[in-house]
Amino acid sequence: MQATTRRTRRPWTSYAVGAAVAAALLATTACEEDNANGPEETAPPTPSVSRPSSPAPDDATDGDDAAGTDLCTMEDLTFAASNYGERGKPVRHVMVVATNSSDKECEVRNAPEIMLGDAQGPAPVMEGTEADEPFTLAPGEKAYAGVLATGGNRDTYEVTFMTPTLGSPGGEAEAEEPVELEMPTEGSFQADDGQRVTGWQPTEGLAMRPVTQS
């Protein structure tokens, strides 16, 4: 008897399941490839920059300080002269004092112009006696200058009056009118061509030391 071979037909359900599994495998493989390439790069956020605000103007700065201190004028100062030697001896050394009699600070520099009587010009400034820098006088403060009346030269003459002025210390203005000082001694004293004056100094000692050592 001939054997009969029977073919068994697979149901459509099996093919559908197989197709679904294959699709899932393809999707999984695609995801793994994307992950292997790394996450998608995104541009970092732009940092915000905080700009410093412009500094406010310095309201505490005083305009006068910024402009500097004015030079003293003859109206700012009062002058006096005294004998800087032993009593009973001829006057040879004279101390001139300028006091700031104003209500504001002012600056002195260089040397005063001192005329001894009828001299042909102001007493020459003694070399090396001017202050290195101008200095400021507050109200009531003093500046000092020394006068050497005689330097041992000939051609002496009698001094019956003397006058100081500030000259033109900054060079930017004409010299002011001098004032006449009360004499540092009764009567008169002798002067000659060797007379000298020191620059303004902030202390009596600095002004008179060069004079008394001459």
Description:
- With 214 residues, the protein is of the alpha+beta class.
- It has a domain at 66-212: Sandwich (Immunoglobulin-like), CATH 2.60.40.
- It is built from 3 helices and 10 strands, in the order ααββββββββββα.
- It has helices at 12-36, 63-67, 204-212, and strands spanning 77-83, 93-100, 106-108, 113-116, 135-137, 142-148, 157-159, 162-165, 189-191, 196-197.
- It has a 4-stranded antiparallel sheet, covered by helices on one side. A two-stranded antiparallel ribbon has the order 3-5. Strands 4-8 form a two-stranded antiparallel ribbon.
- It is globular, with a radius of gyration of 50 Å.
- Mean pLDDT is 77; it is low at 1-31, 38-45, 47-57 and 59-66.
Distance between the termini: 166 Å
Count of alpha/pi helices: 3
Strand order, largest beta sheet: 1-2-6-10
* CATH secondary-structure class of the domain at 66-212: Mainly Beta
Strand content bin: 15-25%
What is the CATH architecture assignment of the domain at 66-212? Answer: Sandwich
**Rg from Cα:** 50 Å
Helix content: 10-25%
By secondary-structure content and strand pairing, the structural class works out as alpha+beta
What's a quick, concise take on this entry?
The protein is of the alpha+beta class. The protein is built from three helices and ten strands.
Features:
214 residues, alpha+beta, Immunoglobulin-like, four-stranded antiparallel β-sheet, globular, 18% helix, 21% strand
